[in-house]
Amino acid sequence: MSTDRRAGWASLLLRSAVGATMIAHGVKHGRTLAGTAGWFKSIGFHRPELQARASAVVEIGAGAALVAGAATPLAAAGVVATMAVAARTVHARNGFFITAEGWEYVANLAAAAVALAGFGPGPYSVDHLLGLHRRLPTLRSMTITAGLGLAASALHLSLYWRKPTATQ
To answer: pTM of the entire structure?
Structure first.
């Protein structure tokens, strides 16, 4: 098997794992919008109903796009943004390890998404089918994906989130 085909299967596997995880999170949020909104309110989000809907849409949309290998750098930026918001609002204060609700898990999903932007979607993807798979050099694609994701999360947090006080 050629190196390109092996890399294609590896990219498909990573896209599918990260994408399916995002879809699962989005579906969970979407099925329990009222509960998700209540949780978002409890962690400091304003307009929690909007946050619940937006999180479901972004997670499902970015996940599905990754699985399909469609608009891969943009979909990966959606994962980075979602994971950065989760890291800041929930996980950062708890240390590294996920066993203590730390940021280990969200950092790994975000890093995998940035790596996918660098590897490209591979030959088994919509992007490849449309000839969009190598429009950006590796480092530039990774930088744009990480930068766009982090900028989107910073904007989102500045508009909709305030660290809850002890009395909230």
So the answer is: 0.93
